[in-house]
Specification:
about 325 residues, alpha+beta, Ubiquitin-like (UB roll), Resuscitation-promoting factor rpfb fold, 4-stranded mixed sheet, about 20% helix, elongated
Length: about 325
């Protein structure tokens, strides 16, 4: 066996009894041209790719090979087979933020994309002209463009109109008329780039039902300490707190807020007639709501205004 010869089966195969066929493929001189480099070897392979790889040259699937028989008797090293490597060009394609590396034979951008199986939609755009030549390590960014026509129901939210009532104290509110949302049917042409909506145009609007506004009444009457005191006495009496209980309640809140519904302690943040701390404890922030919360607080913590006033006199707070 000579250098580069191939035997089949392998030389280490045990020959069985009886007739047995052994194939020997004789090597021949091979010259491989890879760019500016030349390689000389003896090989029995007939495949150009295998001949190139026998020379220890790294190849890529997109590489191509040109093979020819050389019979130059003047220069003995050129006798045999000559294989020229036609190298592919590396490039990358980015679609929707994802980048993939490819290789393709020299040509245009359009030819390279077709060679690696990247198809383009009718409205898609490419960062380089399709007719431009493919260059090494070029990055091509493709924007997938599409348009759809769709019909959707659009809610028209009801607005709220506020009406002032000077006969009701500040903090009072009630719904006079409950509004309703409207709706309409709109047909849009929506433009997408890489799956992200970039614009929409309304083509047609039908079945329009206008919304009905909610009417809300709010009190604007400014309560005075005199008004609050009179209401507080009435509400305390409804609980059975009159006589000394009323006197104690009056003194307690006179010292706390002067029966002023707008009173606020700038240091602690307590507010209102009963000086709730924090203010959010009072769910309904009008005079009636403040007094109701204060009476409930006294009943739950002290039992009656007399006990609450006694505690205040001893501690300066309740």
């Amino acid at each position: 066996m000579g250098q580069g010869d191939i035997v089949e089966p392998s030389a280490s195969t045990v020959i069985p009894q009886g007739f047995y066929n052994i194939n020997v493929y004789r090597s021949k001189p091979v010259t491989v041209i890879d760019g500016s480099k030349s390689y000389h070897l003896l090989s029995a392979y007939s495949s150009p790719r295998l001949l190139v790889e026998s020379a220890g040259i790294k190849t890529y699937p997109a590489d191509q090979y040109k093979s020819e028989v050389v019979t130059n008797f003047v220069n003995q090293t050129d006798i045999g087979i000559k294989v020229t490597v036609e190298r592919s060009i590396p490039f990358s394609v980015t679609i929707g933020g994802t980048t993939t590396d490819y290789r393709a034979q020299p040509g245009t951008v359009a030819q390279a994309l077709a060679a690696v199986g990247v198809s383009l939609g009718q409205e898609d755009t490419v960062s380089s002209p399709l007719s431009s030549p493919l260059t090494e390590n070029m990055n091509l960014t493709i924007t997938r463009v599409s348009e759809v026509v769709t019909t959707v129901d659009v809610v028209l939210p009801a607005s709220t109109q506020t009406v002032d009532d000077p006969n009701q104290p500040i903090g009072y509110s009630s719904i006079k008329t409950q509004g309703t949302d409207g709706h309409k049917t709109v047909t849009y042409r929506i433009h997408y780039a890489n799956g992200v909506e970039t614009s929409r145009v309304a083509l047609q609007t039908t079945d329009v039902v206008e919304p009905v506004a909610t009417v809300k009444v709010v009190g604007t009457k400014v309560a005075t300490p005199t008004d609050a005191t009179a209401l507080g006495q009435e509400m305390a009496a409804n609980r059975g707190w009159s006589g000394t209980e009323w006197v104690s309640l009056y003194q307690l809140w006179e010292h706390e807020s002067g029966w002023n519904p707008s009173a606020r302690n700038s240091w602690s943040g307590a507010c209102g007639i009963p000086q709730a701390n924090p203010c959010s404890k009072i769910a309904v922030d009008d005079v009636s709501g403040q007094i109701t919360w204060g009476l409930d607080y006294i009943a739950q913590r002290y039992g009656d205004p007399n006990a609450a006033w006694a505690y205040w006199q001893a501690n300066g707070s309740y």
